[in-house]
Design brief:
The protein is an alpha+beta fold and 161 residues long. 45% of the residues lie in helices and 12% in strands. Strands 1-2-3 form a three-stranded antiparallel sheet, with no helix packed on it. A two-stranded antiparallel ribbon has the order 4-5. Helix 1 packs across helix 2. The longest helix has 17 residues. It is globular.
């Protein structure tokens, strides 16, 4: 089963080229916050900060647990797991399945390219990963900053650029 995740143009997922229902915007923001740091632990506090910033709901942990449970269900048929680890949650997936990580990889390769023609080709491939304009389904600041800076996972999902 082929799985793919899109953060560059909208928070989306596909299994065998079929869209996966990821729920509403905040739930998608939780997914984006995990995908930016795929295969690394993201604490509940980090998730809350990325999704709600300084305006979390009264029962933020309950909301997060509910969103995580729904995302686990939605992604289970693709074999993508969201695991609990000491200190946080980890979304386990091949980073090549995430457009943001592929974008970073291509840009890095372009920076190290021996010639301008190869660099241009790699940058065109990277830009081709962007679907449409700004993110349509939340998470724009988190993902746009992450595309520029691989250490930017602390940004907030709903914040403006």
């Amino acid at each position: 089963m082929a799985v793919g995740f899109g953060l560059l143009g909208g928070i989306e997922a596909w299994v065998d080229d079929q869209p996966v229902d990821l729920g509403h915007v905040r739930q998608r923001c939780v997914l984006a916050a995990l995908l930016v740091d795929a295969n690394r632990s993201v604490s509940v506090d980090q998730l809350a900060d990325r999704v709600w910033g300084d305006r979390p709901p009264q029962r933020v942990r309950t909301a997060l647990y509910s969103y995580l449970s729904r995302l686990r269900t939605a992604l289970s048929e693709a074999g993508v797991g969201i695991g609990k680890e000491a200190g946080g949650y980890v979304l386990s997936v091949e980073t090549a399945a995430i457009d943001l990580h592929r974008f970073r990889e291509l840009v890095g390769e372009a920076r190290g390219a021996a010639d301008d023609v190869r660099a241009e080709m790699l940058l065109e491939q990277a830009l081709g990963l962007w679907r449409g304009g700004r993110l349509r389904s939340g998470g724009h600041a988190l993902v746009q900053r992450a595309a520029r800076d691989p250490c930017s996972g602390a940004d907030r999902c709903g914040a403006g650029p």
